[in-house]
Amino acid sequence: MAAGRRWSVPEFRAFVLGHPLLWHFARRLVWVSEHDGARAAFRIAEDRTLADAADAVFTPPDGALVGIVHPVALGERATKEWARVFADYEILQPFPQLGRPVHALTAAERGGRLERFEGVTVPGGSLLGLVRRGWERGVTQGGGVVAQVWRRLPDGARITVELDPGLAHGHPRPQRLARVRFDGGTSEEPDPVAVSEALADLATLVETAV
Fold first, then answer.
1. Is residue 74 domain-shared with residue 118, that is, in the same domain?
2. Structural domain count of the chain
3. Cα 154 to chain centroid, rounded
4. What does the buried/exposed string (b/e) look like for 181-208 if buried means 16 or more CB atoms within 10 Å of the residue's CB?
5. pLDDT digits 0-9 by tens, 134-145
6. Taking every annotated instance into account, which residue ranges of this chain make up the domain DUF4132 (predicted)?
7. Which H or E run includes 12?
8. Which candidate, 1, 45, 132, 179, has a CA 20 to 30 Å from the CA of 205?
9. Domain match, 78 and 163 both
10. 139 with 195, same domain?
């Protein structure tokens, strides 16, 4: 979902819908069909047919790509509509999808700094947790200290967190988020799903403030 993985319709039918175990997991999620710029959300019904939010039978068009939809792509109104459908059918999701927090950059933040995250001191172990979620350590400086972590986004964009005093190998002491900045890369419109996931990581990080 976060990575935007897509399958062709035949792949989806063979490896997801037709799988004897996986389809039980898949039917608890909202999926999306994308074709020629058109996007349509659907779910897998109990009889393995596909249905839209109004419970009408849905058939992906030939040539469509199918994937698990992120709530950013669904939009607030459709996300709420699907949440009501799943509540009516008492469907419990295997991970947060419809209830997933959605984050976005403000107009000011697109110009550089994300001040809402700055000045907070967090445990060093929490920062290492970001690395396990796809963030990267910066260049190791003198004394083996890493003063930055960053998250690469599509089209060369990046969110960088500058640390004080810096992470030392084997000593994950608390770190102050001295500066957090957004570099937009080559795209005028940063990927909204990637941005939302990166900002969600930072929001979770600051909740661990010491």
1. no
2. 2
3. 13
4. bbebeeeeebbebbbbbbbbbbeebbee
5. 999 998 887 789
6. 1-135
7. helix 9-12
8. 1
9. no
10. yes
